[in-house]
Recover the amino acids of this structure.
């Protein structure tokens, strides 16, 4: 099997309302017309087992809830070194098994960190028990999905 050119990794805990927005966005992307060479993967609350999948990908897009210091539902995209800088400076408490920064460090140590990588972050409003995102975050999912599609299109040209 040929490795995907682009890995879109949705992460988050769907039992904690807005914390699961990355997975909800991923599901929305999967319902759209599939794009050739793109793999959509539910990364849940992360784990080091994802390192191999990331290493095998040419390009990586992560969608996740992120503390942006902005109003709930704000969507921001961090590419390449900007992604690395954001993750390094934003070491918030995480409900993930391992942090995204730790996972990418493992991939970097293996010398296989995708050069083209991005984080599409969505500012959460509520991280508490619940299966559904808050209204503000739910309304942001189409904008996050558009960011992902724009990245894929731009990287292919």
């Amino acid at each position: 099997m040929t490795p995907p050119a682009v890995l879109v990794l949705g992460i988050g805990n769907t039992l904690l309302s807005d914390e699961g927005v990355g997975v909800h966005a991923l599901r929305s992307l999967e319902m759209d017309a599939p794009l050739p060479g793109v793999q959509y993967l539910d990364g849940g609350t992360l784990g080091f087992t994802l390192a191999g999948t990331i290493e095998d990908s040419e390009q990586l897009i992560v969608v996740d809830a992120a503390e942006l210091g902005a109003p709930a539902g704000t969507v921001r995209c961090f590419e390449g070194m900007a992604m690395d800088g954001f993750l390094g400076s934003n070491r918030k408490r995480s409900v993930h098994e391992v942090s995204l920064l730790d996972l990418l460090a493992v991939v970097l140590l293996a010398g296989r960190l995708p050069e083209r990588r991005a984080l599409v972050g969505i500012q959460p409003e509520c991280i508490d028990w619940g299966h559904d995102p808050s209204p503000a975050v739910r309304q942001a999912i189409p904008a996050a999905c558009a960011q992902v599609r724009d990245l894929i299109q731009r990287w292919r040209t």
